[in-house]
Amino acid sequence: MKTNVLRRFFICLFLSVAISACAKSGREPLGKVVSVYDGDTITVLNARKEQVKIRFYGIDAPELRQAYGAVAKKTLSDLVFQKEVSVEILVPKDKYGRVVAKIFVGELCINEEMVRLGLAWSYQDAAKSTHEFETFQKEARMKGRGLWADGKPVPPWQYRQLEEEKRILKRIKDREKKEKEAQVIEK
Predict the structure, then answer these.
(1) Active site residue 63
(2) Which domain CATH number covers 57?
(3) pTM, whole model, 2 decimals?
(4) Which burial class, exposed, middle or buried, applies to 11 when counting CB atoms under 10 A from its CB (0-12, 13-18, 19+)?
(5) What is the pLDDT of residues 65-88, one digit of tens each?
(6) Which of 39, 126, 137, 182 is the residue whose CA sits 20 to 30 A from 96?
């Protein structure tokens, strides 16, 4: 009877260690962070002295010109700049040529930390089922952390769309102005 209990205990212990090792097995040491572009993009210098641009998987931080954009960049810098990081690569290259990954300093997942601090959204287009980020986002929102202190913060994807619409309208107005000026000159 005692041997069966002990056997089950050791089997459970072995499985939990194996599962834990598997969870970490996707991580690889990458190198030192040499640049922080914004709240969700960094550059890492790897062992071969190559710079690798990394976009954080599953999150979207405010744009630099957006409310909390500078705060997100500063906080990310405090968390990772000049530190050794490991990565769990989820997309080897996105359409902009960046690696898309979860970033770790020690055991701390920086992607989750940025959302937990209220300085990034859980980004569903990039992470179809990143439930852990959604949980941190709900907590940050409920506690009014970071950008959630604003009540109705504008998500970066909406901000980018609004900025693009403004640029298009400006180009249209500039073109109309030039056409009017050309008509005046012709007369």
Answers:
(1) yes
(2) 2.40.50.90
(3) 0.76
(4) exposed
(5) 999 999 999 999 999 999 999 999
(6) 137
